[in-house]
Amino acid sequence: MAKYLLAGLISVIAPHVLAAGAGVAGSTEMNIKKTVVLGEYADKANAIVHINKLKREGRNGAIKTVRLPVYVKRLEVGYYATQQQAQAIVTVLHGKGMTTASVVEGARGFAVAVGVFLEPKNLLKQQHRLKNLGFGNTHVVAGEMMREMFQVVEAAPPASDAPARGAAPGTLPLAAGDAAARQIIPYLFLTLEEAEGKVAQLAREGATANMETIQYKALQLRYYKHQSDAEMVVSVLEQYGIRARYIKSDSGRGYVVMVMDTIYDQDELERRLRQLRYIGFDNARIDEAPAYLVNHTIAINQPGQGAGDVLTFSPGQEGAGISDVLVFGGNTELFSSVGQVKDGKSRSYKISLADARMEGGMLTDSKQGVDSSNYFHAELVGIWNPSRSWEVQLAGRVDAYQQTGVPEYNDADADYADSYIRYRGDNYRLTAGAQTVIWGRVDEVPPIDRLSVQDLSRHMLDDLPNRRRAVPAIRLERFFGANKLDVLWVPVFRPAELPDPQSIWSPVDKINGRIIGTPSSTLLGQLIKAGSFAEDDDGQGGGGIRYSRTGKGLDYAFTVQRARHSQPYYELNPVVAGVLLTSLDAALALSSSNEPTFLARHPMTWIAGADFGIEAGDATWRFEMAYLSDMPVTTTTLAMATTAAIDWVGGVEFYPGEAGTRINAQITGHHLLDNQNIVDRDAIYTFNGAIETLFAHDRWRFHLRFLAGLDEHDVYLNPELSYLGWEPSEIYIGGHYFAGDDGTLGGFHQDHSLATLGWRVKY
Length: 763
Known about the structure:
This protein is an alpha+beta fold. It has a domain at about 1-70 and about 145-330. The chain is built from 11 helices and 37 strands. Strand 25 (about 540-550) and strand 26 form a beta hairpin. The radius of gyration is 34 Å and the shape is elongated.
């Protein structure tokens, strides 16, 4: 770890380990009576650079080597009888990310030095981690380590009332022997607010400090819309022993999770990136990021006040890790002295409320007489990690619905959520159990998302992740660097979750005799009002395979699936249809068969699709397309048939003007390839997307989802204003507006526009 840290950080840290003018009486290093220390460096090369700069300025300088004592405590594991036994432990710890571990020899045998600490609390934390790994034989060795530094010195003029050469204007020269040499200890912060707070704190303590901005290569997971989502990601990473924290994005796109124990070495960054993508974080990126450097000047023979954990190591010493002084402010440190990966023997479990929501909705214009549509949701999840390779999760959800007016109904359902057993190998992950898997790249309507279970209990009032349910499946994910192979098998079909037949969000309106997506008809309307409905949901769900690759500026994927349509398509009983066409008498047609009038079909179909995303012009461009072999349709003879179809979506996401606004815009197309003699719409084009902006110090968020038909009048608007000041809770007010022609989504729900007030929380 030391070589990576020095290689990447020396250009940032070394120029800031400086010395202010300090007198040393009786020095013989340069055969002068008084010297001024102009700079102090951990790397001799940087000291030489300083000397060359002095020469260009016409000044003389020299390099002086000094060794400074540091009192530390070293954490060790052992003892072991032979060096081979100790080296075996080192190999284990290296495999767990503790790359500073090394063998040291003592009076009682061989031990493994894990790290060197100044702060007792950090030593205790590391000792606790080792115990979790199964190493109860830890001990602490106190001692003194010498740190070699290279000082750049220059002869100073005789002491007088005038400032010494090199001293700051307005300062008096230091008398010989009155001052100690000084050094600047840098603190690194991820946010400007924290850095400014540190400067203010040091100023209150009477210390000298300044601040500057630097750039470094960081491993980031971005972006997360809600703080609670970022917190959950940090918690998940901790389960893998990966230290991380989240910050609010400077661009206003949401929250970014920063990996804290990343090393400034391209190979190490890419190794960690592969690990994150193996875990499942496809949004991990290596990119330049700003950090804020606070330079704190202290005397090198005095302990810094509130300096935190100053890690100092002597080069070449056994167990050493870093040969420079490096301090990171608060809990925002970018590095750690030792790894924190959990061992396979660790035990961890967690039971918590995953999310909850309460919403009341008042209808603004309902010809059906419905006054309100209200909703409650809560999900509880339990996670157990018997080892690093195994994970067990059990989750359940409760959904309650209330509709007042006419018709009125109350309903509550309990359902399983993501509940599975997962095993992680070196480059694969196998999951068996109920899962929510959404394939695709675009928002709201991904064409290749055909194996997931749609949740239509509230139609389209919720965003895409909340419109999906878990389904029992077996999933294998195989990782090849930046490539991923994803195989999913759904042994038992689960149809879409539908609302109560009395709900205004049901796809079947028995009061007015309509089925969503189907043009109104007087005769069909009579059949819908008086007829019966049944579900054909037996059989397996299907399966699919998806290959994806994540590259610099370009991500793409291909998929082949054999799946059943999640959303039902209602087939009219053939006997009833025949009588209706010959007699044009709905009552006679209904009496002609004892079988259900309408049967909800979910035909099996082949899907071949592709999707890709490109980052260009300060925007992310996405395109997704799927070919479906069997799309259900109704012919002019009222018989159900299937035809091939193509669905596609093209979109762009960008952040205009100031950083607090995000815009996502998409155009979608749905085409039936054989559109002869059918009553369904053979082509549908829409423009949809979302606009989101934060304001008032990010305490308020305005969010708008929208959909507009391009070939027919079809409108859906979902504005929402949320207060975020009580995170992770949100209070929001909003609305859902529908309008459209007959046969469109907006037309079907035209009388169901409503205003909402709600609360939600996500952990």
